Amino acid sequence: MNTELFGRATDYARGVLSELTYDDLQRPTPCEGWDAGRVVLHLADVIDTLIGLLDTGTLVLPQTPRANDQGPLALMDERLTVLGHAFSVATDVTAVENAALAGAVELTTHGWDIGLARDRAHRIPESLAEDVLALVSAALDASARGENFASPVDVPSNSSASDRLVAFLGRVPRR
User: How far apart are CA 58 and CA 41, in angstroms?
Assistant: First the structure.
């Protein structure tokens, strides 16, 4: 199940990235102090972490985050391709499920961050947002938020799944 959702999240992120221009990389995102280029490089680091999890079964974050890469869009395309290969050859079922869950959340969330930098009306596709929200709401409690996710933001119960997901992850939905 998580691998199917991961595939949909990857397609969504690739679509958002395919619309991004190099000029867009300097646009602000909903993440305070982060422009789209910095989010793209962070996402490349996340992908490398997921590749490591699939290769070794251990989650190890990069010691030094990427910064000022001259080709972040090409880098992301290459890293996503390597990640797809890592999934195809991984044998540790638990690592695959964990990487798929984390990847679906990260690609969807940061896809929204980047998409919103380009278009204030950007939304995550509803079915993807609903499915990611169902998984992440069960897996991410207050103790697991750490420094990675702010406290949930209140939104009306009749809000779109896209708005409910990003609000759950501590972002303010844009209307």
Answer: 22
Radius of gyration of the chain (CA): 15
Which runs of consecutive H residues, i.e. helices, occur in the chain?
2-19, 36-56, 72-89, 93-118, 126-139, 142-145, 161-168
Q: Is 1.20.120.450 the CATH classification of the domain at 2-128?
A: yes
**CA distances (Å), origin 169, targets 19, 87, 101, 119:** 24, 26, 15, 20
User: Coil, helix or strand for 158?
Assistant: coil
- Using one digit for the tens of pLDDT, what is the confidence trace for 88-143? 999 999 999 999 999 999 999 999 999 999 998 899 999 999 999 998 888 776 66
What is the Cα 57 distance to its own chain's centre?
Answer: 20
Q: Where are the domains of the chain?
A: 2-128
**Average of per-residue pLDDT across 14-21:** 95
